[in-house]
Predict the 3D structure of the following.
Amino acid sequence: MWTWASIFIGGGLGSLCRYGIGRLVSMQGFPLGTLTANVMACLILGFLMGLQARKGLSNNYTLLLMTGFCGGFSTFSTFSAETFILVEQSQYGTALVYIFSSLLLCVISIAAGYAVSKLF
């Protein structure tokens, strides 16, 4: 039962954070809120991955933070939908910038979070 509750609670908190970031960070014509949430989620996930690799995290924390929180905070489906809308609106350049910046920044954020975890 704790497994399901951990994922549920973490996912809910992550989703609330994603909504808040989307409200705080907006830019006309570019989905900056989603990009920001995804980059932040990757930074957090990379940090947690590093802790997991070096110190180990209990299964409950892994489910709560990595599966639940980061899963609820990041949003691949929204990224995909926003990319589709940009293409539908013939904003090909913006769509390409969004795709490549998302991929590059998220992978860099995973690596940065992993590196920061070495300090703990």
About this structure: The chain has five helices and no strands. The radius of gyration is 15 Å.
